[in-house]
TrEMBL record:
<dbReference type="GO" id="GO:0043190">
    <property type="term" value="C:ATP-binding cassette (ABC) transporter complex"/>
</dbReference>
<dbReference type="InterPro" id="IPR000914">
    <property type="entry name" value="SBP_5_dom"/>
</dbReference>
<feature type="domain" description="Solute-binding protein family 5">
    <location>
        <begin position="76"/>
        <end position="423"/>
    </location>
</feature>
<feature type="signal peptide">
    <location>
        <begin position="1"/>
        <end position="23"/>
    </location>
</feature>
<keyword id="KW-0732">Signal</keyword>
<dbReference type="Pfam" id="PF00496">
    <property type="entry name" value="SBP_bac_5"/>
</dbReference>
<dbReference type="GO" id="GO:0030288">
    <property type="term" value="C:outer membrane-bounded periplasmic space"/>
</dbReference>
<comment type="similarity">
    <text>Belongs to the bacterial solute-binding protein 5 family.</text>
</comment>
<dbReference type="InterPro" id="IPR039424">
    <property type="entry name" value="SBP_5"/>
</dbReference>
<dbReference type="GO" id="GO:0015833">
    <property type="term" value="P:peptide transport"/>
</dbReference>
<dbReference type="InterPro" id="IPR023765">
    <property type="entry name" value="SBP_5_CS"/>
</dbReference>
<protein>
    <submittedName>
        <fullName>ABC transporter substrate-binding protein</fullName>
    </submittedName>
</protein>
<dbReference type="InterPro" id="IPR030678">
    <property type="entry name" value="Peptide/Ni-bd"/>
</dbReference>
<dbReference type="GO" id="GO:1904680">
    <property type="term" value="F:peptide transmembrane transporter activity"/>
</dbReference>
Length: 510
């Protein structure tokens, strides 16, 4: 039943993707989609990157063993057509036999085993390896198109990692010269995806061409547009000017007011869709930074939760599908539909709780942030309104990461773009420097949840974790996000439920 279910889910999705892509015909003169990113594109190897721009590119040039259905989070076959859990720590995967790399080399089980084994080697020090190391032990070739995965421990979310994290590389990619080279494909991998790299100028332009030998029947369908040019344009004003003049066809992450204003122009289309990214305020509840500080008092943390007008901030500063959230997860994620403690916006209650905690005259604190400065300022303003003398420290992400690792941050406003499971492992694992709760029992609950094979029991464990995090206000849950796009009016760009922009789905109006 397990294998049959995986196949049945795939058939309808693959057919729909193939039909939609085949039905679109480009009418642009040069059939080229021109895209602008604010981020400088430097390293095209997704094994060593995490930012969304790099994920967007990887989706175009790379393939993974499985894919995730953006509508419901289910797993779809991609390079692997079926998977079988032999026992809790052994899984066999059968691979497609009709897949070629962009240089024409046929993909085999040897490439899959190599990709996973090399990424977890001591020399690699890769982000992909760091993610799968919690469960992956080794991979071995059983047949030319069959590979066996050995797990360190039972780990049901391994399928998620197979779907979103490790792109398959040709065997020998990183150690062709006998020593490991982490920059072997930073200038562009020989991938398996629907587009291949035609040229790349780091920090400037990336040109992708449709790969005509891309395998058919996969979850990405048959891309309609023959060429995609991605330009690094850090200045958003320049991006918008280029869009208006026709030099750019697609930009994303546009501020709401700008998107709505420019969207009224006849040569610009404004699209707004959901995003699985959530915002949160992490607090030093465990006293890891300040052992006797105000944030170790539950009443103070609850006062902060009541003080922030999350709904109004989401509506005014993000708009679209953005909305207040109540737990440490996006409402669409596993275990997020169970009851948790709700903290309505109530400044008077916040002041009363502060008085009960002995801080009737308020206290001083510092809120760190690395993005969304208008939202950061709104959080600080609301806290100040109830007597908490909060100071904003807006920094680059790298600076925040270093300070957090050195236990120098009392609280910070952060965001997380979710997978199909909530980000509790990354933020409440015992070994994570993001975990400021000091709650060892919660950390064990997280470990138990991520190793539970029974899906119903796992959902219950996640629900209990969310309830504990929210009740104890280790996080102040803030809001979900929305994404604004500006495009050429002739471009058809489907918006998926998970908010991830998949450029291979784009087409031109007929």
């Amino acid at each position: 039943m397990f294998i049959q279910a995986a196949r049945l889910v795939a058939v309808g999705a693959f057919a729909a993707a193939h039909f939609c892509a085949s039905a679109a015909y480009a009418d642009k003169a040069d059939d080229t989609l021109r895209v602008a990113f604010t981020e400088d594109i430097i390293n095209l190897d997704y094994n060593y990157t995490t930012k969304r721009e790099y994920i967007i590119i990887s989706e175009l040039v790379d393939e993974t063993l499985l894919a995730i259905n953006p509508a419901d989070g289910s797993y779809l076959p991609a390079l692997a057509t079926r998977y079988e859990q032999i026992d809790p720590v052994t899984m066999d995967l059968t691979l497609r036999d009709d897949v070629s790399f962009h240089d024409g080399t046929a993909m085999t089980a040897e490439d899959v085993a190599y990709s996973y084994n090399i990424m977890t080697s001591e020399d690699a020090q890769s982000l992909s390896g760091g993610r799968i190391a919690v469960w992956f032990d080794s991979a071995e070739v059983l047949e030319p198109h069959k590979v066996r995965f050995h797990f360190k421990t039972q780990y049901p979310l391994a399928l998620q990692d197979m779907a979103i994290r490790v792109p398959i590389r040709k065997s020998g990619t990183y150690d062709a010269n006998g020593t490991f080279d982490p920059n072997a494909v930073s200038g562009g991998p020989v991938g398996l995806g629907p587009y291949k790299i035609a040229s790349f100028e780091p920090g400037s332009d990336l040109v992708l061409e449709r790969f005509d030998d891309y395998y058919s029947g996969g979850p990405k369908g048959d891309p309609a547009i023959s060429k995609i040019v991605i330009r690094s344009l850090p200045d958003e004003g320049t991006q918008q000017a280029e869009l208006i003049s026709g030099g750019i066809d697609w930009i994303y992450g546009v501020q709401r007011d700008i998107a709505e204003s420019l969207g009224q122009m006849p040569n610009v289309a404004h699209l707004s869709g959901p995003d699985r990214r959530i915002g949160f305020l992490i607090l030093d509840a465990g006293g890891l930074v300040s052992p006797d500080g105000p944030l170790t008092d539950l009443k103070v943390r609850r006062a902060m939760a009541h003080a922030i007008d999350r709904a109004s901030i989401a509506e005014a500063l993000i708009g679209g599908a953005a909305a207040r959230i109540e737990g440490a997860c996006h409402p669409s994620e596993l275990g997020c539909n169970y009851p948790v403690t709700v903290y309505d916006y109530d400044p008077e209650k916040a002041r009363a709780l502060l008085a009960e905690a002995g801080y009737g005259d308020g206290f001083e604190t510092e809120i760190w942030a690395y993005r969304d400065k208008p939202m950061s300022e709104a959080i600080v303003s609301d806290l100040q309104a109830v007597g908490i003398n909060a100071k904003l420290r807006q920094v680059k992400l790298d600076s925040l990461n270093v300070a957090r690792a050195n236990r120098q941050i009392l609280s910070y406003f952060g965001t997380w773009g979710g997978d199909t499971a909530p980000p509790i492992r990354q933020h409440f694992d015992a070994d994570s420097d993001r975990n400021l709760s000091g709650d060892a029992e919660l950390a064990q609950m997280v470990t138990d949840a991520y190793t539970e094979l029974d899906s119903e029991r796992q959902a219950e464990l996640f629900a209990a974790i969310h309830a504990r995090i929210t009740d104890q206000v280790y996080w102040v849950p803030l809001w979900s996000y929305s994404v604004n796009y500006l495009t050429d009016p002739d471009l058809v760009f489907p918006l998926d439920d998970d908010g991830f922009p998949r450029l291979y789905k784009a087409s031109w109006k007929q």
